[in-house]
Structures are given as structure tokens and as C-alpha cells.
Amino acid sequence: MTLKEIQELIKMLKKSNVGEIKIEEKEFKISIRSKDYIMGTNGSKPMANPVPVQTIVQQPSMPAAQPVAPTQAPPAAAQPPANSDSGAAEEANYITVKAPMIGTFYRSSSPDKPPFIQVGDTIKEGDVLCIIEAMKLFNEIESEVSGKVVKILADDASPIEYDQPLLLVDPS
User: Fold this and answer.
1) CB–CB of 66/100 below 8 Å?
2) Is the pLDDT of residue 68 over 80?
């Protein structure tokens, strides 16, 4: 089941009068409960004082951020003049680490802890780059590339989208 399908289930749950959806497949189990509608003891009536409930998802581990190969320069006829923006040309040599899922981006494991990475840090494959919270699950995102962190593109504790650039790494 893809993340998009899970999001569709959540939307359907919000629009319907159903209090809970459970799905079990070979690779995972998912249970989604509405925080506005909690089933009573007899299974038919909502409770008088609903209590927020979190979604529980068990699935295989998500792949870490996928590195993106440096982009190829456009043909010479389509290139802008050299003096227009040298920063964009420099960024073409960097690897962009993108978000493998939607959620909330965190640079450290808690507010009182130091960030996993800083600009200028040298990273190697397997190093934890950040945490993305998705559906109350905290997912450590590990590096699949080695190099030097050039720029962190996402703000701490900010919402991020799937495939959103998180940071730039200089592989040299």
C-alpha cells in the first residue's frame, strides 16, 4: 500500500460516519481511527467524550532519501549568459537529498539535543541526517551518499512534502 493510498483512506474516514478502518495484507497492517468518533463498548455508538487516537502503521522500513544525480547542463544554445546566475551552476554539481515521505522535518532528536548535521559537516553513507515525523511515527532518514553538507533547505519543525529537497551535498 502506498502513502497516497493511506492518505486516501484517511480522507474517506473523515468524510464518512465510520469510526475505524483496519486493513491487513501480507507485508503490513494498518488501523486508522477517527479522533472525532470513537466506538463505544457495544461497537455501535460514539462515546460522549471522544479521546484522540493515533494511527498505527506497521510496514516494511521505508527507503532512505534517494540521491539525485547532478543535472545535465542544457545545450549551449539554450544556456543563459554566464553572468546571469553562477549560483545555479554551482548547485548543479551537488547531490540533492529529497524527502522519502511527507511529514514534519526535524534536524535533531529532541529540542534540547544538537542537530544531526550542520552546514559544513562531512557525512558518509548510513549517517542519520534528520527525522521525519509521519502519522506519529518518527523515521530516521539515513544518508545514501558521502560528502560535505553544503546547504540545508528545510526549516526545523516544518511540514515537508514527498520528494521535497531537504539538503545539498557536495560529493567531492
Assistant:
1) yes
2) no
Q: Which domains does the chain have, with CATH numbers?
A: 3-58 (no CATH), 91-170 (2.40.50.100)
Tell me how far CA of residue 166 lies from CA of 31, 102, 114, 162, in angstroms: 30, 12, 18, 10
Instruction: Name the pLDDT band for 24 (thresholds 50, 70, 90).
Output: confident
Predicted confidence at residue 14, as pLDDT, reads 74
List, in sequence order, every residue forming a beta bridge with 22; answer none if it has no partner.
Answer: 31
Asked if 161 contacts 153 with a C-beta cutoff of 8 angstroms, the reply is: no
- Evaluated on CA atoms 4, 70, 148, 152, the torsion sign reads negative
Cell of 64: 532512505
Residues shown for the chain:
172
Predicted model pTM: 0.50
pLDDT score for 48: 46
Cβ density class 88-116: b for 16+ within 10 Å, e for less = eeebeebbbbbbbbbbebbbeeeeeeeeb
**Burial class (CB within 10 angstroms; exposed 0-12, middle 13-18, buried 19+) of 79:** exposed
